[in-house]
Amino acid sequence: MTSSFKTQPEIDFQSEAYKDAYSRINAIAIVGEQLAFENFLQLAQLLPQYDKPLLQLAKVENRHKKSFQACGKNLNVIPDLHFAWNFFAALHHNFRVAVDRRQVVTCLLIQALIIECFAIAAYSIYVPVADDFARQITETVILDEQAHLNFGEAWLKRHFDTSRAELKHANQANLPLIWQMLNQVEADVCAIGIDKAAIAETFMMHYGDALGNIGFSTREILQLSAHGLATPTCRLTEEVSLDLG
Ligand SMILES: [Fe+2]
Ligand SMILES: [Fe+2]
Questions:
Q1: What's the predicted TM-score (pTM) here?
Q2: Ligand 2: distance of its center to the CA of 61 in Å?
């Protein structure tokens, strides 16, 4: 008689296949946290009346970066930072353009909603298949990312009437990038025991909740969340054509 308990398959954290995939996944976490640190510093300049909380958020992101660097070291993995900088290039470019144009709403949508929801989703799905060291760190990081998402939601809720149009435009320009990014790492997330579809579903759940908390109607949430989802998230062969410069 087979056990009814659902058990995770054994993961060999020291296998070459795991370490190869982890070199890119770990680098994405490190560079993602570095960019979050820089983005909150930029936001503190754009919103000087909120510079104290934003500088505090930046400080936390820098701590996350160090924690994920420790996760790589713990498994003797050298993070492929070049890959990770390319991975974020298009989203980072859009954030920088928004900073230059002083588009605070777009900056908040990219960092405090999209990136934070993506981090919460990816980290949450990673926790059950992580090594012991990384699991403990990642569980703590998720709580922080939730607080960062809440900051963005609260600001955008207070300024919803004047932000609505820019949010829709920024969503259309940036949400498709998330699906492209996720497709790009499908094989790597699979190699470390993660189902890409589970990340996508969890992201949609958090992002939809965030849009609702800000003030969008259910109909608008469905329209906004569908941008960039014209191609199924599980298509393996799709060519990702990010202009990485
Ligand atoms: Fe973070
Ligand atoms: Fe964060």
A1: 0.89
A2: 6
